[in-house]
Write a structure and sequence with these properties.
This protein is an alpha/beta fold and 316 residues long. Helices cover 39% and strands 19% of the residues. It contains 13 helices and eleven strands. It has helices at 47-50, 62-70, 77-85, 102-107, 118-127, 160-173, 191-196, 200-209, 219-228, 247-253, 257-260, 262-274, 278-299, and strands at 13-14, 18-20, 27-31, 34-35, 91-95, 110-115, 130-133, 146-152, 174-185, 232-239, 307-313. The strands form two sheets. Strands 7-6-5-8-9-11-10 form a seven-stranded mixed β-sheet, sandwiched between helices. Strands 1-2-3-4 form a four-stranded antiparallel β-sheet. Helix 10 packs across helix 12 (262-274). The structure holds zinc ion. Zinc ion (ZN) binds at residues 5, 7-8, 10, 21, 23-24, 26.
């Protein structure tokens, strides 16, 4: 992997325990095998507490693989989407990789990870071919290094002011004809979110700050950003754009919202009952999966989505 200077894009020279830029003299330390490009930055020190499940780098068991095919698009919808859209056997870059993804590693020839949190990148470096600590707005990789650039739940965390820089960097490091696959948290015009926004302070607290979503944009706005940088949109899959699963009521509204908006209290109570048992959750997962694959894709509006899966291509 040819690393380049994040300031001037000159190829870096490897030293004993650092990388050095021969042009501008910048020096980048290496911490436990991970080059550090954006020192002192840690995003989400307590991220582990928020997404307990996401930090595990684990191969799906046979049972999970069965569930994955049965429940497509719900619990496993992102894995299924990655299997369909990632460049198989290519060199992939995982932006905001956290501790790494088993699926990306399995589908790619090589995977490189980059994360702002050094400890996460160090864990990823054990699973991936290579990992670095750095910002996705200035990638330390040479132009045309990758067949595929992926990100999961990253773009909604990037402030609007930095987004164009991130998309331009993805374009730069992709080979011509390369693909970029993203799972993106979005702003939404659906009823659930519109109602939540009636209490702006609670919306800020539970929809933005609690989950670090400080860069939510409508799906149509995100598509335009990628198109402006020269990408061709290959696929957009809507998620959570119509009937929302009851989980959403528990994640976002089972708090002061139920006191402020009385009409929500009953819905949250119903969600609690529906999600109480494993059988209930599984049944809902299957029903929601069927709905997601059919009605949601056919009849709901793109800008009602709370998440999208997006695949874009850099023309050859
Ligand atoms: Zn330099």
């Amino acid at each position: 992997m040819q690393l380049v200077c994040t300031t001037c894009h000159t190829p870096l020279t490897a030293r004993h325990d650092s990388f050095e830029c021969p042009a501008c003299g910048s020096v980048f330390a290496v911490a436990e095998g991970v080059p550090v490009f954006y020192p002192q930055a840690t995003l989400y020190r307590n991220y582990d507490d928020i997404w307990e499940l996401d930090k595990e780098f684990c191969a799906p068991t046979l049972f999970h693989r069965f569930l994955g095919s049965a429940l497509k698009y719900w619990t496993y919808r992102e894995r299924v989407y990655a299997q369909r859209h990632l460049v198989r056997g290519g060199d992939s870059l995982d932006l905001g990789c956290w501790t790494g993804s088993y699926t990306y590693a399995r589908l790619s020839r090589t995977v490189t990870g980059i994360d702002l949190t050094l400890s996460a990148a160090q864990v990823a470096s054990h699973h991936y071919n290579f990992a670095v600590q750095g910002s996705v707005a200035c990638l330390p990789f040479a132009a045309g290094s990758f067949d595929c650039v992926v990100s999961a739940h990253l773009i909604g965390h990037v402030p609007a002011a930095n987004k164009d820089a991130v998309v331009a960097e993805i374009h730069r490091v992709l080979k011509p004809g390369g693909k970029s696959v993203h799972f993106i948290e979005t702003d939404s015009e659906n009823i659930f979110v519109r109602r939540a926004k009636r209490d702006p302070d609670l919306y800020q607290k539970y929809f933005v700050e609690r989950v670090g979503h400080n860069g939510l944009e409508l799906p149509s706005v995100i598509l335009k950003r990628f198109q402006r940088q020269g990408f061709v949109v290959e696929d957009v899959t809507k998620m959570d754009s119509g009937i929302l699963p009851p989980w959403y009521y528990l994640w976002y509204l089972d708090n002061e919202y139920t006191q402020r908006q009385r009409a929500l209290a009953g819905k949250v109570r119903l969600a609690r009952v529906l999600c109480r048992t494993r059988v209930g959750n599984l049944t809902l997962g299957v029903l929601y999966g069927i709905y997601h694959r059919s009605w949601e894709q056919w009849f709901t509006r793109l800008d009602d989505s709370m998440h999208i899966s997006l695949t874009v291509k850099k023309p050859s």
